[in-house]
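Run folding on both entries below.
>entry_1
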Amino acid sequence: MAIDYIATYLKYTDDNECPKLFHRWTALSCLAAKLGRKVHFRFGHFNIYPNMYVLLIGSPGTKKSTGIKMGAKLLGDTGYDYFAAKKTRQEKYLTDLAEQFLNKGKDTSDVDLILDNLTLDEDSASEKSAASNKAPAESFVTADEFNNFIGYNNVDFISILGELWDYNGVFDYRLKNSDSIYINNPTINILGGNTQVGLNSAFPPEIIGQGFFSRLLLIYSDPSGKEIPFPLPPDESLKGDLVQFFSDVEDKLHGEMLLTDEARELMKIIYTKWDSIDDPRFEHYSNRRFQHLIKLTMVIAASKLSMQITKDVVIEANTVLTFAEQLMPRALGEFGRSKNSAATHKILVFITNKGMATFKEIFKVVSQDFDKREQVIEAINSLLLADKIAVQETNSGRTIYLPKKKVLFDGEDGLVDWKYLTQEELNSY
């Protein structure tokens, strides 16, 4: 009898301080990596594959590294060996992908040696054709310090990773020495960790308008609040169940995943009804949201060892994604906001913490952050328009501002069902 993969994984990783939300997305990422291109979803003229770019975002105390390392170790114990180096250079990473099936198991530390083993540019057309006959080039980036992998303000590398997210065919890359390498059907999964400050230091603000950012799933969590000074060793029985599950995935899941009629109709409704994230920084993500959802339905169907995407799978995937999306603005902090956004956020925090505030009190707190009184009024009005605060007149005629607590969707439309999340996850919102 097949196990409930996600539930079993959450139980296996329970005895530590890493939030369950991080463990959930680690479990999903590891399964996506295991699937590679073994399964696909037909989407018009192209195929969608289940690979995902996931960044776990939180303070240094959220134990992101714990979650990522536990998932990577378990996946490695199943025989998976397409892990990328945690620290690399752009050319080294791409040549490793090109070389993967030519020199499997050989030392590839020297880029020049790698290139010597590749036939380059003498006959580009034939080389590109030959590359197309190779197996897909797979890579799973498990970098608990993602900045070590991506570097700092490396716009070119960021752009390439964005392109590789859904690449179909042979990727042609020209090296600095003008040689070309060919990578067949690159299949990249990313599971990285970062802080809000780390995002600001690694990425230039303009990345928000680029393709890579729209392909990222930013998973934010505060610390779990658990205090476990001495975690217990892993439960070998649960580990055995998970290793067997990954073996079953390898044996049983191949080919095209199909939607049931009910699932297809529900996906159509989600496509037309879903509201974008209430933050202009996610405009490009919103345009790509449906593809993210398709990928996630594939992974969740696979978690049940099924090649069929059912209505229940769609609801579970949409629930998990919707919950993550409601926390995504927190992941960015002030990254990519407008000039006065930090001060506007300061107003919101002040009102939230105080419970209510007058304009005089607000002005006193942020008077050094704005040039004019009118700018403070504009900031307050922007918070009102964004439905983040409320305004009220007291009996004495004073105007006060109140926090407006956001609540989870009630799920009455049937598109989400919070039963798919743990109570710890729901309490973290």
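>entry_2
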Amino acid sequence: MTDAFKQQIQAEARQAVEELLEQAKLKKGDVFVVGCSSSEIVGGHIGKDSSLEAAQAVYAGIAPVLAQRGIWLAAQCCEHLNRAIIMEREAAEQYGWEEVCVVPRPHAGGSWATTCWKQFKDPIAVEEIRAHAGIDIGGTLIGMHLRRVAVPVRLSLNRIGEANILCARTRPKLIGGERAKYTEEDWCLMAEKTPEEMREAVLAIREKMAAAAREAGRDPAEVQLCAACKTRTAETVAASAALPIDVFGENHVQELCANFDAGAYCGKPSHFIGHLQTNKIKKVLGRASLIQSVGSEHLLTAIEKEAAKAGIVQNVLLEVNIGGEESKSGVSPEALWPLLDAAAAQEHIRVKGLMAIPPVNDDDAQNRRYLAAVHDLFVKAGERGYSNVEMQTLSMGMSGDYENAIREGATLVRIGTAIYGERDYRKR
């Protein structure tokens, strides 16, 4: 298995769990079950082509995200162990689940369960659990280990590697009959803004953007406002297009396609700002004037291939993982230079700048240090003098730190919640 494919698996697993957690609204101490056919991930047949490398890549993508939120990971074994569960002893004791005696192996439990057994601090096996949400990678039937009532969840991706995925959250049972109120709105309230509230929000953001630019001795006109319209309807996006928004950014390919094809951007540019799977590049080309999230040579090569077929030149930003966070895509600052070299050698790609998402940090000074470090890379990249590399756009800063980003040199800030309100993931 190539390093590029392992990185792809890890990134896709990370994206899948992050998206599911956004919708499942799990809390600390909840249980997240994962069934994983490493055979299916590598393009084989479930139970026949077990791959520890694939399982390890999935674990590297999923485990840190769950650990960061205090959510327990439960790993489902294969059918040879009756789809028993491997989990931390502390989690099993918390829920009163009885231990059984078995140790998984790649061909008696599966590579996924084996990987988790080796990585957990104090692993045990239990026969059955009632998890709060989970991911089925490759048809492993995790439904037998979910609480009632299970609700399917659609993500922006439908595969990890070559394996199909099925995701689910759970909700409490609905009781009370006709007089009761138990629609999803009753227990999952969202706060999307009205058109007037959006107008007021954008004007306030623009004022803060201008003030931050002037504070840094910059012309406010140098900084663009990108509306991150993840999960928003075409109607909402179209309504916001009349506001002083420069460009629209989409995290998910299907939403880019739907909004672009519906004319929701009203002639304004659209960018792709999320994790891009190679099998969806074709749909992005011609719709996104800029792909902001190119964070690997594997993706770079795939974009070059598809752009060549389409006979176009695709503008991109290279994504830098400035904080070295496992939960985020992008290359390390050190790995930026070989990625830039590779990009400069492509005929159908033009590098227009960098993109970064610094770690969430309550320390204002630390946040600015991360942002300043990205700007330093931006300047150095521009000094390399490649003919097809123009460091025009530095995309960094979101709803929580866009003012600092502008102070540290950002030319484009990506703002979603502050414009539109809280996201309603039921619309996806």
